[in-house]
Every structure is written in C-alpha cells, then in structure tokens.
Design a protein that fits this description.
By secondary structure, the protein is mainly beta. It has a domain of 111 residues. The protein is built from 1 helix and 11 strands, in the order E-E-E-E-H-E-E-E-E-E-E-E. A hairpin with a 4-residue loop joins strand 7 and strand 8.
C-alpha cells in the first residue's frame, strides 16, 4: 500500500514570473539582458514534438521500443503582457517603425509600429526566459533559444478591464542536434 506524501516545496514551481530577453543563466545581472515587463495571467512554456514511428508487418502498434524518432517540433513561450509600449511592441512583433512630428493641431506627434511582411536576421534574439521561483524560493528559468516573435499577438479590448495582449515567441533550430530549449534550476 502506498503512503500519502506531502509535496516538496522545492518541487512546486510558482506561476508568477518575468520574461527576460537575452537571458544569461551564468550572469543574472547581465547588462544586455532586458526585462520585457509585467505579466498578468502568467504564460506558457511549450515543448511540443511530432514523432514518427517505424511500422512493420506484424507489429503490435506504433509504439515499439527503439523505433520512434522525433521529426519536428514547435517550441514556444506565450505570455500575457500587461505592459505594452512603443519599444516593447518592436520586440513583440518585428516591425517597421514610423515617427512623425505633426505640425497640424490638434494632432500630436506620434510613433507608429507596422508589422513587417518578412523577417530579417536582426528580428531574432539569442533567447527568452520565463523566470519564476519554487515554493521554497529557488529560481527556475524556462528558456527558449534563437527566438522570434513570429506567433500571434492578440489583444482583447473589454469594458472596465486592462488590455493584456497574449504574445507568442517561437524557438528556432540552428544546430539540428541541439533542442533550442532548456530549464535552469538554481541552488
């Protein structure tokens, strides 16, 4: 018979955290790292693989040990961002930027963000981390690499509520032998 056991606090990861662009797991105060802002409703780190099974006559199903391989993946971080400004929009959706100094009252000067049709090398960034804590206070970082904000950007406008856009960032393969995602557990 199995005895009931209470969970260990160091194994419970809390949902609240922050997104950090160009995160360095060896240097948490790295100047090149950028905190992307506060989330509401947290986010999702998703590591989804598509597998292919090698089938043969007389097999007992597609799940035969040693005959399965990964053929593709979709690795993402989706976050519900409470803060949304001109600079962050350039990260959330690779864009062409327009600035205007309007001299036509009552129109104030403005900046406009228009999504690009095609992505460029400068639109990618090294990595993105969703950094949170365990119940016992230790840091945990969920990281994806070679990141592009090429997923959806969805903003619901509701009466008497803040706009909290959902933004999807995708990891991209560079070295085909290394999955562009990892989790860091700090002591």
């Amino acid at each position: 018979m199995f005895k009931k056991v209470a969970p260990k606090p160091e194994n419970i990861h809390l949902g609240e955290g922050i997104l950090i662009k160009n995160f360095d797991p060896r240097d948490l105060e790295k100047p090149e790292s950028t905190r992307l802002g506060v989330t509401r409703g947290g986010g999702t780190w998703n590591l989804e693989f598509t597998n292919r099974s090698s089938r043969f006559d007389g097999d007992r199903g597609e799940d035969t040990k040693g005959l399965k391989s990964r053929i593709e993946s979709k690795i993402t971080i989706t976050a519900n961002m409470l803060e949304l400004d001109y600079e962050s929009m350039q990260i959330y959706t690779p864009s062409k930027l327009t600035e205007s100094t309007s001299n036509m009252p009552p129109t104030p000067a403005f900046k406009m963000v228009r999504p690009k049709v095609d992505f460029e090398e400068e639109d990618y960034f090294d990595n993105l981390a969703y950094v949170t804590r365990t119940k016992s206070g230790k840091l945990v970082a969920y990281v994806i690499e070679n990141v592009l904000a090429d997923g959806s950007l969805s903003a619901a406008m509701n009466d008497k509520d803040d706009i909290v856009p959902e933004i999807t960032f995708t990891a991209h393969w560079e070295d085909l032998d290394v999955v562009p995602a990892y989790v860091v557990y700090y002591e």
